[in-house]
Amino acid sequence: xxxxxxxxxxxxxxxxxxxxxxxxxxxxxxFDACWFPHDTFRKNSWALCSAVAAATTTIKVAxxxxxxxxxxxxxxxxxxxxxxxxxxxxxxxxxxxxxxEMMGWLxxxxxxxxxxxxxxxxxxxxxxQGEVVQGGEAFPWTEQSYLRFSPVRRDLPIYGGGFGxxxxxxxxxxxxxxxxxxxxxESAALMLAPIREGLARAGRxxxxxxxxxxxxxxxxxxxxxxxxxxxxxVAYFGPYLEEEALATIGVAHADFEPIQARVAAGDYRGAAxxxxxxxxxxxMAGTPAEIIPRVEALVEAGVTHVSLGGPLGPDPRRAIExxxxxxxxxxx
Length: 332
Fold this sequence. Notes:
By secondary structure, this protein is an alpha/beta fold. The protein has 2 domains: 1-161, Alpha-Beta Barrel (TIM Barrel); 213-332, no CATH class. Helix 3 packs across helix 5 (113-128) and helix 6 (165-174) packs across helix 7. The chain has 13 helices and 9 strands. 44% of the residues lie in helices and 14% in strands. The protein has an 8-stranded parallel β-barrel, surrounded by 9 helices. It has helices at 16-28, 45-55, 73-87, 100-105, 113-128, 165-174, 188-201, 223-237, 243-247, 257-264, 268-273, 288-301, 316-327, and strands spanning 4-8, 33-37, 60-64, 91-96, 158-161, 177-178, 210-219, 284-286, 305-312.
């Protein structure tokens, strides 16, 4: 089965209007979906999704990490049902949590993240299906909890986005798709195993379950420039990656300790300078020819939707063109 491709836009890469323009370009270049991270204190992904829906005609519009702490399931359901209506049935919902740290900024404890996300998925799905939704442990709703309008699609796809084996197993049990981080790409088999365990535990077939592997990418005509572009991202986020995932490319959390010290001191450029070429392999960084075999590895591991995000490249617009013209066609 041929994979589909998504592109994830980080909000700091450009003004909001430019991000929307890039989404239009991604549609023209053959991408199947456009994803926006839903992060605390960042540009709002719901507003960006709505703008992209109005500016495009075929590309699916989605979020990664709409979380069940700062956004309540009733709000999530009504927003995505409305987005689906506005886009003509092109909305996807990525429901989950990137890191517990962001919720910590708000003074929120995320110890119950797996149970809370499971309940949120179940409640959003029940609302979309027209049910009167009963209260649960995390969300003690009353008998007045039901939609006052009919969604365009009652089976709007819900993807679970999170980290850790228990969370990934839960996505296989109750979601329509999963959003594992495949950073580095060599860790894909490790990340997909608990998803498959969850599917089996729930007696569900893997057929039709979309595994949207989220990889970081930096692509350009000059491979070294592309690697230099990814270094600051790796310096900041590398320590959050799981030890087992890092081990697949021979890197450990201990290797990041001097880099973390620079980040803590606010010396991001100095931190990036300490990121080695091997550490850069947590991402797909280089020329299109260097990117292709690493995408192939994801597909061979069982990723059905390749979601490419991060800095994209030294020139993000040119990166979208290179991916659309030279990488995606190899898989179609």
